[in-house]
Amino acid sequence: MNIEEKIKALDKYDYPVNRFSRIIRDFIDDKTEIKPVLIRKGFYLDDISLYKEAISNISEHDSNITIFCKIIHYIMDKFGVICSKENRWKVLNLDYKDEYGFEHPVSIREFVGKNAAMCFERATFLHNTLKILDFESAVIVGKLYSNEEEEYHAYNLVITNDSKYVLLDSTNFMRGTKDKKAYPCIFTLTKEEYKGIVYENSKFRASKEKNPLLVEFMNFDLMYC
Fold first, then answer.
1. What is the pLDDT of residues 105-141, one digit of tens each?
2. CA 91, CA 133: separation in Å to the nearest integer?
3. Which ranges of the chain would DSSP assign to H, the alpha helix?
4. Which residues, at least 6 apart from 181, have a Cβ–Cβ distance to it below 8 Å?
5. Cα 70 vs. chain centroid, distance in angstroms?
6. 126 three-state secondary structure
7. What is the dihedral of CA 217, 78, 206, 201, to 10 degrees?
8. How far apart, in Å, are the Cα atoms of 30 and each of 9, 42, 59, 214, 218?
9. What would the pLDDT profile of 172-213 be if each residue is shown by its tens digit?
């Protein structure tokens, strides 16, 4: 796949991305500023090499769920599992200059290996990667119920190739109490639940039973970053 040509052909979302964006369906342009917090500078999805890495081990024989799982595991490996607002602010507050001393914007690349990428960084990167792979993806900026708690959050909704509806949360991970491994939060939705989230007329509650990767576990802890 020629990712550069693929990106050129995609419809672009070129409005500022912030907590008021609510829903983003198009590929987020590399010149679009993404601001997790309005009073601070944002970052840019400007590093194509990360997309290439994220999809490098995906096979044409992989199921949609396997593809989602591989990309989320890449995000986990690249950006960390345990992350914090303090680490994020350190990344966003630094002055980045080129070889001539001119300031340049904060790249998504700056979050690699620093345990600093939170929901906005992860959800937007996951969204763009899925768009490259021709999935009908959307970033939702709003609230999500999980573990009986409601949190302000950015996450993804995806329609699979066989018309199933899925919620992907690449920031939070479910941890199996038997093996203590972190498993991606991948929840199956009904069409009504999907529409309810999109049109904000109902609340979705994430649960173990809706995660196809966790049905073998009797109990789990939802681990927040």
1. 899 999 999 999 999 999 999 999 999 999 999 999 9
2. 29
3. 3-9, 48-55, 64-79, 85-93, 119-132, 191-198
4. 175
5. 13
6. helix
7. -170
8. 14, 12, 26, 35, 42
9. 877 665 666 667 888 899 999 999 999 888 777 777 778 876
pTM: 0.89
Both structure tokens of 37: 């917090």
Using the Cα atoms of residue 147, residue 148, residue 149 and residue 150 in order, give the sign of their dihedral. positive
pLDDT value, residue 180: 63
Task: Name which of 24, 77, 71, 25 is nearest 51 in CA terms.
Answer: 71
The DSSP result for 145-173, as a single string, is: EETTEEEEEEEEEEE-TTS-EEEEEEEEE
- Residue-wise pLDDT for 143-161, tens only, equals 877 656 677 889 999 999 9
Task: From 27, 32, 30, select the one nearest 14 (Cα to Cα).
Answer: 32
Average pLDDT, the chain: 86
When pLDDT is cut at 50, 70 and 90, the band that residue 221 belongs to is very low
Beta bridge partners of 184: 173
Q: Say if residues 119 and 84 touch (Cβ distance below 8 Å).
A: no
Alpha-carbon gap, residue 110 to 25, rounded angstroms? 25
Strand pairing report for 165-176 and 220-223: antiparallel
Using an 8 Å Cβ cutoff, are 58 and 67 in contact?
yes
| Tokens describing residue 153 | 């959050």
